[in-house]
Amino acid sequence: MLSVNNVSLQYGGKKLFEDVNLKFTKGNCYGIIGANGAGKSTFLKILSGEVEPNKGDVTMDKGERMSVLQQNHNAFDHETVLRTVMLGYRRLVEVMDEKDALYMKADFSEEDGIRAGELETEFAEMNGYDAETEAQQLLMALRIPMELHGKTMKELDGKMKVKVLLAQAVFGNPDVLLLDEPTNDLDIASVRWLENYLMDFENTIIIVSHNRHFLNKVCTNICDVDYGQINMFVGNYDFWYQTSQLMARQQKEQNKKAEQRAKELQDFIARFAANASKSRQATSRKKELERLTISDFKPSLRKYPFIDFKFEREIGNDILLVEGLTKKGYFEDVSFTVQKNEKIGIVSDNSRAITMLYDILMGKEQSDAGTIKWGKTIVNSYFPTDNGEFFDGCDLTLVEWLSQFSKDHYEEYLRGWLGRMLFSGEEALKHAKVLSGGEKVRCMLAKMMLAGGNFLILDEPTNHLDLETITSLNTGLQNFKGCMLLTSHDQELMNTVCNRIIEINGTKVYDKNTNYDAYLDEISEGK
Fold first, then answer.
1. Are the C-beta atoms of residues 394 and 432 closer than 8 Å to each other?
2. Which of 324, 385, 448, 502 has a beta carbon 3.0–4.6 Å from 460's, enabling a disulfide?
3. Are 379 and 358 in contact (CB under 8 A)?
């Protein structure tokens, strides 16, 4: 068991945590959630011992081992892939190295023999004789072929390194496993493998992730970081979200009723306090007023933007016809027709091919062959995966920036759209060129909403977004009444929004009216 005891942490004048007490027990998976800057990753560092709290401590049962997913992808560049995985259980590797060094000695002594025997016993207790096989199996499960196991880490690309470090973290069945954004840069097959692995894991898991589908799949508990406190809820992310929304509504309703009753009592007391015949009733009401409590309700530090795509022009029968579309090096002979009410998920092993398809549809690139025919009633709006052209070197304030894309240039009107995306007050006067990745995405979504398109094309819109904005975007796209082409690594978004899936790998290889989960199940069975 891992225990957090009265932990407090303060940086400068900012309190991140105050008197946090938690117990993480075997057989459970805990998802750590909270607004950006709430301290989720810092909390994991406190658990691992990388960051020392100002007050309190973290304790783990004697003899237990903790493993942490490494964030420095280049930390093991000079190690082989196989050894990097085994270094997840550092004591095992130390024993193995010392044992091998003893056996290599030319003058192997009796004392060396005794020490070797001790090491052999410890090695066996750590299941060391099966360690190399386990490491190989983990790598193979993550689709890292045997021929790469002897290579050094620096010879692998970034996405392969992520998989190796994930294998390292889970290697050797640690008692406590800490994972900070473990699904980042993982392909969907690896994410599904990790989900299944963690669901079968019998020890303690603590995760920080923005992947809602992943949190829903693996978590037994959610730890909500808000106002320097961490409150634990039983259930997965969706259960926490529904519960927290219900609790907030109930608290507001109770406060509203209490405030209304307090006003009634105050009015009665003011009217009849000096009236002798009513003095007993007035006194009774004073006592009731004193007993009446109105909770100091704090809205969460989380802020959910308001994302709602509306359009004025209704969609006709002709929407989009693509025939024989070819772009050398990306795809060939791709054909499909978009019908009313279709929200199509476009998937591919090659993300650049999807971006090229979208750029061609929007007229930013030219195809080598094929035709595209948009319906006359269609007003399209595009969210590109790379938004640099809209912000790089742009010295405009956000009000001025959004004004470029609006028919109405009235400042209050533009501030209203920015306010929806959490840029209120002075925030609306920030300069576009200094925005963070998530802020740029929110600006692009404001631009799209302002455009009023009845056909949306979105290429990885959840990149850089926090859970709150992803949740709001999900709701907005579900409520959208027009047509859509959508590509995202967010499985929950794809599954809850799309009603048709098209896979393009070289050419079109899959096209069905189905949801994303059913598509994944089908292709998994096919393999």
1. yes
2. 385
3. no
Q: What is the band of 294 on the pLDDT scale with cuts at 50, 70, 90?
A: very low
Distances (CA, A) of 494 to 116, 218, 485, 491: 56, 19, 11, 5
Query: Is the separation of the CB atoms in 524 and 517 below 8 Å?
Result: no
Over pLDDT 90: what percentage of the chain? 72
Q: Do the Cβ atoms of 463 and 388 come closer than 8 Å?
A: no
pLDDT tens sequence across 124-177:
999 999 999 999 999 999 999 999 999 999 999 888 999 999 999 999 999 999
Contact between 330 and 356 under an 8 Å Cβ cutoff? The reply is yes
- Give the alpha-carbon dihedral of 48, 64, 87, 102, to 10 degrees: 140
Q: Among residues of the chain, what percentage have pLDDT more than 70?
A: 92
What pLDDT, in 10s, does the model give residues 470-491? 999 999 999 999 999 999 999 9
The structure's pTM equals 0.80
**Residues with Cβ < 8 Å from 481, sequence gap 6 or more?**
311, 341
What residues have CB less than 8 Å from 442, skipping those under 6 apart? 305, 421, 422, 423, 465, 469
CATH class of the domain whose range is 320-397+430-526: alpha beta
Is 496 strand, coil or helix? Answer: helix
Report the candidate in 2, 151, 171 with the shortest Cα–Cα distance to residue 91: 171
Q: Could you tell me which of 167, 198, 172, 155 has the C-alpha nearest to residue 82?
A: 167
Which segments of 3-72 does DSSP mark as H helices, in order?
40-48
Q: How many residues in total does the chain contain?
A: 527
Averaged over 9-18, what is the pLDDT? 86
Asked if 160 contacts 127 with a C-beta cutoff of 8 angstroms, the reply is no
User: Could you give the residue ranges of the DSSP H alpha helices within 109-184?
Assistant: 110-125, 131-141, 158-170
The CA-CA-CA angle for residues 421, 427, 430, to 5°, reads 110
